[in-house]
Every structure is written in structure tokens, then in C-alpha cells.
């Protein structure tokens, strides 16, 4: 009798456990679609998309090892309200970010913090990377307000990020007030005001003196705006590609161009269209063109460039300097970018560029009145009006928070080896021979520059 009672209790417990498991499986099948989805998981987006909000996802695992994939799932949170991903997607993303299991499923972890740290940790202790943000200011108050809003609303996975403002002499008093009143909670804020007019070219060259070869700087001019994902992406790209192992990579662009600005067209204000998606299907490619509309640069390569520029400017007035063949940049008399193009051509250096659908980017330029918006040699207008129209030749769409899943999935598909990335030359053409061919193409230009260095000396 006693044994029968004990058996009944055990049987009842087993029945309850079976019913609970059955209910759990039914629940998971229901969430994953009728009849189940072969081990696919549903990810619930964060309660809010702003920094500081949190995410959660269900814990339905329909196969023995599905729980191991959970560490990858939080990176998809926020992609869609109820995004469903499979093991292959999760595995691909984990390998792109943090395949060693550091990223754990914790609903209290901030999504963008998780994304940034997980994606970066594999390459280096990058959450301790020396990254500065530099903003260049003069008279465009409304443009500056727009840029600062986008910086304020972006996502940052860490503190200790210095924000440095460079304010040229002759600035608008309202612009300086805006700079001083801007609340930066992610690190120290520094304001450097020039006593005499420097111009963007000079102030840009004096802005950053890297302390270490691996120091990093993000340069943002006041007529651009940035995506909420810009810092997360820049940090990831820097940790993956801006290392001593890749001496030919100078930086990572936030912006994807859709024009061939180097083409010496008859009308330089209407350059021909150019789309990187016609050259590569990957989300990244290497381009021998510097970016002035949002980019992060590495200290060692930037120091070499500023040394080159010091030598270049010290040449006696009127010294003929060799021109880069078929490059409109030879006529850019007011642009620091001209000299960086020369240096990159001379040293066969490239930048990593993103390539997403329709050139959607981590930064965009609004092409407002300034040095780059007039014909070469024309007087630069001074204006503080935002454009009422959108010049889609230059202004591209920004990647939004809801694009996070697609962004990281595509970045996860990019070959890790630098040699596997498509190389594009200064003229926007794919280069089959990679960096070595870029070197050979620059031989004639390099020999002419070396003759000048022999004649006048060189510290480069």
C-alpha cells in the first residue's frame, strides 16, 4: 500500500514534468511558426532603441546544442520587432564577433554595448583603444547643430572618449556658444580656439598629434551628420584592420561615395556616377581615396602623412611638383585632401570603405556652402542656411538602428583576410593585382617625388 502510494506520487510528478515539457515545446513551435522551424529562434527587440535600453529574447531551444548559439542572438536584437534567425546566421555572426563564448545571453546587457564589445574583443583589447573624436567648427551654426544632434544620439559602448572641438578664428559667436554648451557624457571635452585664421587645411593638419602608433582619431566636419551606429562601426573596423599587420591600410571611411570625384570631367561640379556595388558584393572594400566626410585614421600612418605634408609645404615657392595622372585633385588648391591623395598614391595606401545598398552609410555630407561646393579657385561663400533640397549625388542615406541586424550580418560575411577584399584604385577601377599593382602604377610619380627629395632634402 505504501509502495503503491509512493509509485502514484512518482507517476504524478512524471506526468506533470511531461506536460510542462510538452507545453514548452508547443510554445516554442508556436513562436517559431506552425510545425516548428528546425531550431530557429525568435529574438525580441529591446524595449526602446535608445542607448541605455535593454533587450531580451526567449529561451526556447529545440535542439541539444541550440543554447550554445544564444550568445550570438543578442546582436540581432533591434533588427526587427520579431526577427527570426537560424543557426547558420547565428554561427556566422558569432564567428565575426565573439566565437570564444565571452558574449553570454543576459537580458540586462545593453544591445549596442554588447555588439561593440563582442565584435571588437576578438581582435584586440579594443574596449581600451585610444580613440578621439575631432569636430571642426567655423560659421555654420545650423549645420553644427545638426551634426551635434547626431553625435549626441549615437550609441557608445564605453566611456573615456575624448571629444575635441577645433574652432577657427573668425567663427560665429553662436557656434562657440553651442560648442561650450554641448553636453558630452562619454569622456572629456576639449575646445581649442585659434587666435588667427587658419583655414580648414591648416587646422586639420594641426588637430591631432598621435601619442602612439595605434592611436585613432575620428574626423568630422561640421556639414556632415552621422549614423547612430557610426562609433560602433568605426571601433570595429579599426580593431580589425587598423593594426601594424596592415601597414597599407590608413583608415576606415564612414561614408560611401556614389560619384567619381577624381575624374577630370569638363564640368567638375557634375562628375560621373560611380557605384561600388558594381565592383564588389562584399560589405567592405579597399579604396585608394581618402575620405573627408567622416573617417577614422590610425596614428602611425597619419604621422607619416603629416611629415610628408611638412616637407611638401617647405619646398621653395614655385617648385614644380609632379601631378598624379588624370586626377582632378591636382587642382584642389584649398583642400587638405589633395595632399593626402598624393601621399596615399605615393605610398600605395588605402582606406576600408563600407558598401551597403544604395550607398547607405555611417555618415553623410549635406553639400552645403563651403570649399568643396564651389568650382576650383572660386570664392567660397559664407552661409548659415541648411539646404532646402537634397543633393543626392553627395547626400546618402544614413544607416539606422533598425538596420543593425543587416549591417552586422553582412559584415560577418566579409572575408577576414585583408587580401580577400576588393582593391579599388584612385580612379574607381577594381585592381586585379591588389596593393602590389598600386605600387607599380605609382612608380613614375614616386621617382619624380624622390628626385625632389634628393634635391631639397626629405624627412619622410
Characteristics of this structure?
14 strands, 3-stranded antiparallel β-sheet, alpha/beta, 9-stranded mixed β-sheet, 460 residues
Question: How would you portray this structure in words?
Answer:
There is one protein chain. It is built from twelve helices and 14 strands. It has 460 residues and is of the alpha/beta class.
Low-confidence stretches: 27-117, 119-126
Helix proportion range? 25-40%
- The total count of helices amounts to 12
| Secondary-structure element string | HEEEHHEHEHEHEEHEEEHHEEHEHH
Q: Could you tell me the mean pLDDT?
A: 77
* Shape by Cα distribution: globular
Distance between the termini: 97 Å
Structural class: alpha/beta
The amount of beta strand, in percent, is: 5-15%
Over the alpha carbons, how many angstroms does the gyration radius reach?
Answer: 26 Å
Strand order of the largest sheet: 6-5-4-7-11-9-12-10-14
Describe the sheet with the most strands.
Answer: 9 strands, mixed
Report the count of strand segments.
14
**Oligomerization category of the chains in this entry:** single chain
Amino acid at each position: 500500500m505504501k509502495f503503491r502510494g509512493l509509485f502514484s506520487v512518482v507517476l504524478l510528478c512524471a506526468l506533470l514534468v511531461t506536460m510542462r515539457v510538452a507545453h514548452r515545446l508547443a510554445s516554442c513551435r508556436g513562436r517559431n511558426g506552425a510545425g516548428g522551424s528546425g531550431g530557429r529562434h525568435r529574438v525580441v527587440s529591446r524595449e526602446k532603441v535608445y542607448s541605455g535600453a535593454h533587450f531580451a529574447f526567449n529561451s526556447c531551444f529545440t535542439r541539444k546544442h541550440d543554447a550554445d548559439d544564444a550568445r550570438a542572438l543578442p546582436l540581432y536584437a533591434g533588427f526587427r520587432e520579431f526577427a527570426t534567425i537560424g543557426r547558420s546566421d547565428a554561427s556566422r555572426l558569432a564567428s565575426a564577433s565573439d566565437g570564444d563564448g565571452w558574449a553570454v545571453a543576459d537580458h540586462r546587457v545593453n544591445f549596442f554595448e554588447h555588439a561593440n564589445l563582442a565584435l571588437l574583443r576578438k581582435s584586440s583589447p579594443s574596449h581600451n583603444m585610444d580613440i578621439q573624436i575631432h569636430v571642426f567648427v567655423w560659421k555654420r551654426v545650423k549645420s553644427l547643430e545638426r551634426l551635434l544632434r547626431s553625435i549626441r544620439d549615437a550609441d557608445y559602448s564605453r566611456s573615456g572618449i575624448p571629444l575635441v572641438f577645433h574652432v577657427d578664428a573668425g567663427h560665429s559667436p553662436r557656434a562657440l556658444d553651442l560648442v561650450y554648451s554641448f553636453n558630452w557624457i562619454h569622456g572629456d571635452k576639449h575646445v581649442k580656439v585659434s587666435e588667427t585664421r587658419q583655414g580648414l587645411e591648416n587646422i586639420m593638419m594641426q588637430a591631432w598629434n598621435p601619442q602612439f602608433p595605434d592611436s585613432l582619431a575620428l574626423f568630422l566636419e561640421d556639414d556632415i551628420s552621422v549614423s547612430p551606429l557610426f562609433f560602433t562601426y568605426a571601433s570595429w573596423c579599426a580593431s580589425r584592420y587598423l593594426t601594424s599587420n596592415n601597414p597599407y591600410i590608413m583608415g576606415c571611411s564612414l561614408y560611401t561615395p556614389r560619384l567619381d570625384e577624381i575624374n577630370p570631367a569638363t564640368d567638375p561640379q557634375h562628375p560621373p556616377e560611380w557605384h561600388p556595388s558594381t565592383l564588389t558584393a562584399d560589405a567592405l572594400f579597399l579604396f585608394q581615396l581618402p575620405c573627408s566626410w567622416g573617417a577614422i585614421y590610425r596614428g602611425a600612418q597619419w604621422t607619416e602623412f603629416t611629415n610628408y605634408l611638412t616637407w611638401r609645404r617647405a619646398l621653395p615657392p614655385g617648385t614644380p611638383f609632379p601631378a598624379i595622372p588624370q586626377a582632378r585633385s591636382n587642382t584642389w588648391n584649398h583642400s587638405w585632401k589633395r595632399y593626402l591623395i598624393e601621399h596615399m598614391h605615393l605610398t600605395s595606401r588605402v582606406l576600408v570603405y563600407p558598401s551597403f545598398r544604395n550607398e547607405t552609410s555611417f555618415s553623410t555630407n549635406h553639400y552645403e556652402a563651403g570649399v568643396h561646393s564651389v568650382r576650383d579657385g572660386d570664392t567660397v561663400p559664407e552661409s548659415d542656411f541648411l539646404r532646402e533640397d537634397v543633393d543626392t549625388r553627395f547626400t546618402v542615406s544614413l544607416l539606422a538602428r533598425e538596420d543593425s541586424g543587416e549591417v552586422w550580418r553582412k559584415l560577418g560575411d566579409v572575408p577576414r583576410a585583408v587580401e580577400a577584399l576588393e582593391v579599388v584604385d584612385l580612379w574607381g577601377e577594381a585592381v586585379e593585382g591588389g596593393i602590389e599593382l598600386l605600387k607599380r602604377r605609382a612608380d613614375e610619380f614616386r621617382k619624380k617625388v624622390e628626385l625632389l627629395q634628393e634635391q631639397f632634402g626629405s624627412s619622410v
